[in-house]
Write a structure and sequence with these properties.
Elements lengths: L1 H12 L3 H10 L6 H11 L9 H14 L2 H16 L1
Helix pairs in contact: 2-3, 4-5
Amino acid sequence: MKIFENIINHKINNITSTELLKYSKQFKIKITNEEAVKLANHLNGRKVNIFKPNERAQLIREVAKLTSPATAKELNDLFNLFAEQ
């Protein structure tokens, strides 16, 4: 299970705006091109572990500031699906 966590965290910490837009469509989370760029810039190089509840909660608060509370909630629901596996 640890390798699964490492792969997901690595992808989140190194994601591009293009990948964010692709995944947002795949998981039906609405973000604009501008929001994708902001999020990718914010996430790049960070060492966030979405499998730690306190780190995930902090990231969701940051996403809400960069996008909207509704988008942050959708993303949190998606992260929770991964974390429950």
